[in-house]
Write a structure and sequence with these properties.
The chain has 165 residues and is mainly α. It contains four helices and two strands; from the N terminus they run H-E-H-E-H-H.
């Protein structure tokens, strides 16, 4: 199905909001909750009130579970799974993937020309991860230099204590 049709179908559906979410900060979140009030106009579906979630608002089978771009989702947790992804799919990188594997997956996906659903700028993400690795290495190296001297003094102090006893 064409991208324009998918977007038209999705944008034709109302945004389901919680009752009184515009009036109170306490319920200002966008999470849907069914109105249960005794005198609720929204629950009674009076004209001019917000829409209630119903079965009829569901997406057609052709576009259900597709990305807005019209591509299928492919969840990736390692490089082996990335190898199976085709051009008709969009990569959904798992949140449980560590930085080392994330970097490898992003570089391989970029070479392959794949799109990522949950990463807006792949180049920026790669550079951020690499910068974090460099900063951690530098911090570790500087920490080793600082710790080298106190460790020697501790050994000498321990020897002195044993001689006194």
């Amino acid at each position: 199905m064409e991208i324009k049709k998918i977007r038209a179908i999705r944008h034709g559906r109302p945004k389901f909001r919680r009752q009184d979410s515009t009036y109170r900060n306490k319920v200002a979140d966008d999470f849907w909750r069914k109105p249960r009030g005794r005198h609720s106009k929204m629950r009674n579906e009076e004209a001019g009130k917000k829409a209630i979630v119903k079965v009829g608002y569901g997406s057609p089978k052709e576009i259900k579970y597709l990305h807005v771009s019209g591509l299928e989702f492919a969840r990736v947790e390692n490089l082996a799974q990335l190898g199976k992804v085709t051009k008709s799919q969009i990569v959904l990188l798992s949140g449980t993937v560590g930085n080392k594997n994330r970097l490898a997956i992003l570089k391989a996906g970029k070479e392959k020309g794949l799109k990522f659903a949950n990463i807006t700028d792949v180049d920026k993400e790669i550079s951020n991860i690499e910068n974090n690795f460099k900063a951690r290495k530098e911090a570790k190296a500087s920490k080793k230099k600082v710790e080298a001297k106190p460790a020697e003094t501790k050994k000498h102090e321990a020897k002195k204590e044993t001689k006194k006893q």
